[in-house]
Amino acid sequence: MLTHIVIWKYRVDIEQEVREEHVGLLRALVGTIPELVSLTVGFDVLRLPRSYDTGLVAVFHDRAGLEAYTIHPAHIKVAELGRRISEHVASVDFED
What we know:
Elements: E1 2-10, H1 16-27, E2 36-43, E3 54-60, H2 63-71, H3 73-85, E4 86-95
Antiparallel strand pairs: 1-3, 1-4, 2-3
Helix pairs in contact: 1-3
């Protein structure tokens, strides 16, 4: 299995409505991209100085599944939005 984790630190000028749209589009990837084994996404609840605003954990059977996800048009659309509204995006991918 391959786990894909992404976190977003939104720009301070990004309204809550846009943040919710981003999370909604991420959640909509479930059932749209067949290679996804599971996907969870949500807003940070602790709001610590080191916290990011939103986090995603997606699981794939293998690297080929992640690669198919990466080039899927629905993912490209939401990834572009995430980059536009964030001051920083970080990710990590690991096999388990």
